[in-house]
Design brief:
The complex is a heterodimer of chains A (246) and B (243).
Chain A: E1 2-7, H1 13-26, E2 30-35, H2 42-46, H3 50-55, H4 59-64, H5 74-81, E3 83-84, E4 90-93, H6 111-117, E5 123-128, E6 144-151, H7 155-171, E7 174-184, H8 187-197, E8 202-206, H9 209-217, H10 221-224, H11 229-245
Parallel strand pairs in A: 1-5, 1-6, 2-4, 2-5, 6-7, 7-8
Antiparallel strand pairs in A: 3-4
Helix pairs in contact in A: 1-11
Chain B: E1 2-7, H1 13-26, E2 30-36, H2 42-46, E3 60-62, E4 70-72, H3 78-85, E5 87-88, E6 94-96, H4 105-121, E7 127-133, H5 138-141, E8 150-155, H6 159-172, E9 177-184, E10 197-200, H7 203-211, H8 215-218, H9 223-242
The chains are: A alpha/beta (246), B alpha/beta (243).
């Protein structure tokens, strides 16, 4: 199963990806989480901790620095440069830009290439995409099983998700598209989002202080507040995705 | 002044950029506000209707040696480009749009290249420039902030924002940096990221976001807008010192 999580910056892509990845692992999937953001923070939401998140090598820059002699396959790259976190989720970072000499940020290996080359089978690949639509515009028909569009109740956020949904439908990029309505505070938020997103099915993740507190503390919400409403909603979505693929 | 605004997605770059542009315009003088984000949102905080189109073909010409193969049309100066192609918004702010990404990236890329050329070519004495950059480090890494004489790094409470700011810092520090703490409550400041300006957490701004209304129109006089007003004042003073 190949899943990509996308949306506007700040909508909650990384939190959603991290909790979904852990939820899928608990459903018995071998999970590979791919951080496709050049500002990689997925490790925190997976529960890896701040130090190990910051220590993870990005595949792109590691290859550029000549850390390996031959060009590894996608499979070798996620083993060589990835690490394994809680619930045995393997995480790998595609590219990381943190200094003026970080090399060409998009040469050599790309998120869409990794997603394309990695085998799935009884394995779930979950890609936390860069904010906006850049990577999506480089994807073709059948690239994904599931596209998760994370939306918060604001016109800017909905605008990005609608354009993404249109492009996914036009090119046939994903078999299933799901909207995660995040930070929803009540019925009026939800009614507005449903009307804006038209026929795309919506999963509600309530506004939840536990998620903000987890970010402040630098930990995963699934570890810090496993019973909180937002975490429960995402774990339920992971169960649904699991059933969908079975 | 020429300001580039950077930070993590959702940190509040667009809120700060649009509100700052309008507050500077109210103090007099021409202000150019530019979206350097292919998912543009600056129209919201400026109080403009959404602008879908980027610069028209008449403003561009092909040039193999230019980035993405496009540059400003022959004979079109940056000042004329603003006069002819910027959208005039509330308080007289001139808005330059890159257009929207909708599957074909090249349309946006060529418009973005031309907008950058305009910003780099505008004379600092003719106008103020405020540009809202894409979330994260990619476009700063590509030098999108290089037109500026000041980079605002927007940070919010929380570790993901602090990590982002720490990674951005070495990338943009070829230009003087001001750290702006946004949506701040009573948290301690991030170590090594001391903010000169603190914009308080303000429910009115969140409401303006949900309603799609400009913060300056929806929340005039609110604590957050007052803090951005103080930032405008501080930037003006810094400019006077530099000159």
């Amino acid at each position: 199963m190949k899943i990509a999580v996308m949306g506007k910056g700040g909508s909650g892509k990384t939190t959603t990806s991290g909790v979904l990845a852990r939820g899928l692992a608990r459903e018995g999937w071998e999970v590979v989480a791919i951080d496709c953001d050049s500002n990689p923070n997925l490790g925190i939401s997976l529960g890896l901790g701040l130090v190990d998140t910051e220590r993870l090598s990005a595949i792109r820059q590691a290859l550029d620095d000549g850390e390996v002699e031959h060009s590894p396959t996608a499979e070798e790259a996620i083993i060589r440069f990835g690490t394994v976190g809680p619930d045995k989720v393997r995480v790998a970072v595609v590219t990381k830009i943190d200094k003026p000499t970080s090399g060409c940020p998009c040469c050599g290996i790309s998120p869409e290439q990794l997603l394309g080359e990695l085998e799935t089978g009884r394995r779930a690949l979950i890609a936390d995409m860069e904010a906006g639509m850049g990577t999506l515009t480089r994807m073709g028909a059948g690239a994904l099983d599931v596209a998760v569009l994370v939306v918060e109740p604001s016109p800017k956020s909905v605008g990005v998700a609608r354009r993404a949904a249109e492009l996914i439908a036009k090119r046939g990029i994903a078999t299933t598209t799901i909207v995660v309505a995040n930070k929803v505070r009540g019925e009026s938020d939800l009614a507005w989002l449903r009307a804006e997103m038209e026929e795309v099915p919506v999963t509600v993740v309530p506004d939840d202080a536990a998620v903000r507190d987890a970010d402040i503390a630098g930990v995963s919400p699934i570890d810090a507040a496993p019973g909180s409403p937002a975490v429960l909603a995402l774990v339920t979505l992971a169960q649904r995705l699991s059933a969908l693929a079975a | 002044m020429r300001v580039a605004v950077v930070g993590k997605g959702g940190a509040g770059k667009t809120t700060v950029a649009g509100t700052l542009a309008r507050l500077l315009a109210r103090r007099g003088g021409l202000v150019v506000a530019a979206d350097l984000d292919p998912n543009p949102g600056l129209t919201w905080s400026l109080g403009l209707p959404v602008v879908d189109a980027g610069l028209p073909d008449a403003a561009l010409r092909e040039d193999e040696e230019a980035p993405y193969g496009w540059r400003l049309a022959t004979g079109l100066t940056p000042t004329e480009a603003v006069e002819r192609f910027a959208v005039i918004g509330p308080d007289g702010v001139r808005y330059l749009s890159p257009g929207k990404i909708d599957g074909a990236t090249h349309g946006v890329s060529r418009s973005l290249t031309a907008v950058r050329e305009i910003l780099a070519g505008l004379h600092p004495l003719d106008c103020d420039v405020i540009a809202d950059l894409e979330a994260g480090p990619t476009t700063p890494f590509e030098g999108y902030h290089s037109f500026a004489d000041r980079v605002l790094v927007i940070v919010t409470p929380g570790w993901s924002s602090a990590l982002t700011a720490r990674r951005l810092r070495p990338i943009v520090e070829d230009v003087p940096i001001t750290i702006v703490a946004n949506r701040w409550g009573d948290q301690a400041q991030h170590r090594g990221l001391r903010a000169e300006t603190i914009i308080p957490a303000d429910p009115c701004i969140a409401e303006a976001d949900r309603l799609g209304r400009a913060p300056l129109d929806h929340c005039p006089g609110s604590p957050a807008v007052q803090a951005i007003e103080a930032l405008a004042e501080r930037l003006r003073r810094a400019e006077g010192v530099a000159a």
